[in-house]
Structures are given as C-alpha cells and as structure tokens.
Amino acid sequence: MQFSEKHILWKDIRKCYVRKYNPLVEFGGWGFKGGVFWNVNKGTAYNVKGNIGLQLHLKNGKKFLIGTQKESEIKRVLQTYAHKISNHEN
To answer: Which of 37, 50, 64, 70 is deepest in the core (most CB within 10 A)?
Structure first.
C-alpha cells in the first residue's frame, strides 16, 4: 500500500478535539483504517499505538482520527490555532 501526503486546511475543519478511543472496538485494530471496505460513518483512522487521538470533522462531512502519544502537545497546538477553527473543543 502506498501512502500519499495529505494536507487539511484549518478553514476546512468544522470541529476538532482530543479524545480517548478504543482502537479494537472502533476501528478493528491499529494501523490505517478506512476506505471503501470500512464503515464510512467511522471515518478514517491513522493509529499505531495507544488510545488517544485527534478527532477531526471536516466541513465536507469526512472524519479523521489521528492517533498520538503526545496528548499535551496536541492540546497546546489546538489551543494555539483554535481561532482558525469554527467549532473548537478542548
């Protein structure tokens, strides 16, 4: 599987927040989860380890969950750029 770089503009984000999630229950495990064979209501997940992620809801209806091991750092980034997002949650 070949991955390509993806950029999401701040103006395209409707809502974002850091949350706990269950990789096995919600996404069937770790790794890249999504695509045509996945429940589109769950969105796409990029996760490697752990159970903390950045949840993105885009204005076009797409959802992404990006796993992180650096919860406090991602929260600081969201606080810094909250003004660029229409409905930011802490």
So the answer is: 64
**In the block, which residue shows the tokens 């695509």?**
35
pLDDT digits (tens, 9 = 90+) for 3-59: 667 889 989 999 999 999 988 888 777 777 775 555 556 788 888 888 999 999 999
Q: The CATH number of the domain where 48 resides is what?
A: 2.40.50
Does residue 5 form part of some domain? no
Q: How far is CA 80 from CA 12, 74, 89, in A?
A: 17, 10, 12
Q: Is residue 21 part of a domain?
A: yes
Please give the structure tokens belonging to residue 85.
Answer: 């997002």
